[in-house]
Structures
1.
Amino acid sequence: MIEIKNLAYSYRSDHNQADTEEETIAINNLSLSIEKGEFVAILGHNGSGKSTLAKLLNAQIFPTQGDIIIDGLNTKDHDKVWEIREKCSMVFQNPDNQMVATTVEEEVAFGPENLQIKNPELRNRVEESLELVGMQDYKHRSPSQLSGGQKQRVSIAGVLAMQSDYIIFDEPTAMLDPKGRKDVIKIIKKLNQEMGKTIVLITHYMEEAVNADKIIVLNQGDKALEGSAVDVFSQVEKMKKLGLTVPQVTEVAYELKKAGIKIDKMPLTIDQLMEEL
């Protein structure tokens, strides 16, 4: 499991027209745990610390204070950094930021090659990962010839080929069209439900967070809300005060309830709303 204990992180930046350094607190005394096999969604407005948390989990940056323990390994232990990154992989918002090879096949092989995985296991991992994300017919193509959604699928295949237990998705659908978004979320759900991968999904699309076992809402680097999708999204007023929305269906139910219509349980999907009505 992942344990986050009293975590704090500050960015240091040079102050304009001055010799002093300015400190910006991105994460502030955050504590939470993520169980193996869980699907956790992290929400929060811009500047709430979501992406900073993702980088800390992947040991791209290290805590200013507190600890992150991943399967008993502390991310501050520099001797264990590669082992931690092998366990806890990351898919970025912009797939172009993690494309390094000239063909899709080579791109997917890049991660496991760096883990010194040899053939035939390497080739098997690449084939299986491409098949899982539906990109096996594109393996000889250049990534530059792919659409945004296809590139994101290749990024996911690269992480799968590393066989990581924990996969962090940092707003993976932000640059995609609705079809691309739908495809990526379908793959994420499959990884969690069928392959038992632990998923940490950072998103600003509330409809994507509905699928999660647990939702954590960050505000100014600390935990503002934590609970199931129903628990969190039922608190419509609190979500609005935090600068966030709720799924459209939940918003409609909330307005209907305010207008006097009896709704016992806040719905998250259209089917649930129809049932309540």
2.
Amino acid sequence: MNQQQKSLRVGICAILFALVFRLCSPQVLGAALDALSQPDTVAFLIYAETGRDVRFSPSDPPPVLTYANITFPPESLPPTPPALPVFGDAGIVSMYYSCRYRPNLEKLLTKPLSWDLASGEPTVLILHTHTTESYTKGQEDYQETAAYRTADPEHNMLAIGARVAELLEQKGIHTIHCTEFHDYPSYNGSYGRSRKTAAAYLKKYPSIRLVLDLHRDASEGIHGQLRTQAQVDGKDSAQLMVVVGTNAGQLAHDRWEENLSLGLKLHAQLETQCPGITRPLCLRSQRFNQDLSPGSLLIEVGAAGNTREEALVAADQLAAAIAALSRGTGPTEDSKGSEADLPPAPVSHLQG
């Protein structure tokens, strides 16, 4: 056999093997590799490559072919759900203190959250104590009742609540969105009216586990209204701030630490999924009606200096974080660190 014939045989074998490796499933490929290790097959391959006629005696040890360099296609795996934060690490949260309390953040972070928001019953209530709060106008054309306030539901806090409610419903979380105006036509007494509303819903739907009072912040300085800023997938976004009330203002609210435990987890989840989306969690002396439910939070969605579009981007992140926590958190070992003793930090202005 001349060299040209040898080369031709080797080339044909190589092409055939390449086609087999590409087209066969891992199971068929494994069976084929086992067949290739048989003595007669090895003899044929040696003959094809060298032209030598080789025979193996039954008493000879079987030839060994190794497949260490052969890569099998990976099996298809289900997508891995996003991981929850490491709640034992208090460094993931930041705080504004506007009261005398300095709670143990690590202990509250690691406290298990036992709920299931996707149980089929109404589990989330969204309302707005300051319903008419609105944002900086862009190209929108709507009538304001006062500066940065409007009764137009497409441009006040009702639009933000509707977005969060819609996204939660898409995740199987039955959400009630209260569209009642509590600050119009009269701003005074807003919290008293929203208190009656929340209490009525909680009585009618005892399955509610999370009460969200959605606001937007307002703080005017020398450069105009405060504009909070974050980036979400290359888009401008407002920031979110979790506000937790206490009994430091002498109003009864014995379970405020339960709300803070939840608020810390939500804050941590938001920062984990989108770093920079939050402002520091604000711990206040006022109770903001949060004594009505241990799952009650006030959320500032941006500020008056933001646009509605920026606030809606932040609202999407808020809904995603709630959905991530909707099955609760597993039991974790409580940290035994000492209570934080941090100095008060500057506090953003909250109306009401």
